[in-house]
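[recover] target loaded
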């Protein structure tokens, strides 16, 4: 009998992108090895602040769902994939793109 080793799951990294006042926030995700490039892309924008980010609750469920989404996106492009996990306006969730995964609590 042959044993098949599980395929390693790529690590996921998140970027918290906001306007200078922090009223408009976007949470983007990419594979961890592409995280620095995604952060740098948003730091070049004069009206946006991009910084690495980590969820404090529901992390395992969120990361599992996002990893699958990124793996699916990677099949369609030769560029490092990134996805919009959710957006927040004035301290309230207005968009959450992970059906079946509870939104994390705010603020973070």
């Amino acid at each position: 009998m042959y044993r098949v080793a599980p395929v390693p799951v790529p690590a996921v990294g998140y970027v918290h992108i906001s306007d200078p006042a922090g009223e408009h926030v976007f949470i983007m995700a990419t594979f961890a090895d592409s995280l620095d490039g995604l952060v740098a892309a948003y730091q070049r924008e004069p009206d946006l602040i991009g910084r690495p980010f980590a969820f404090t609750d529901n992390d395992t469920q969120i990361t599992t769902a996002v990893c699958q989404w990124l793996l699916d996106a990677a099949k369609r492009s030769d560029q490092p994939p990134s996805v919009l996990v959710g957006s927040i306006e004035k301290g309230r969730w207005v968009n959450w793109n992970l059906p079946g995964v509870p939104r994390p609590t705010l603020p973070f």
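[recover] notes: Residues 56 and 104 are 8 Å apart (CA to CA).
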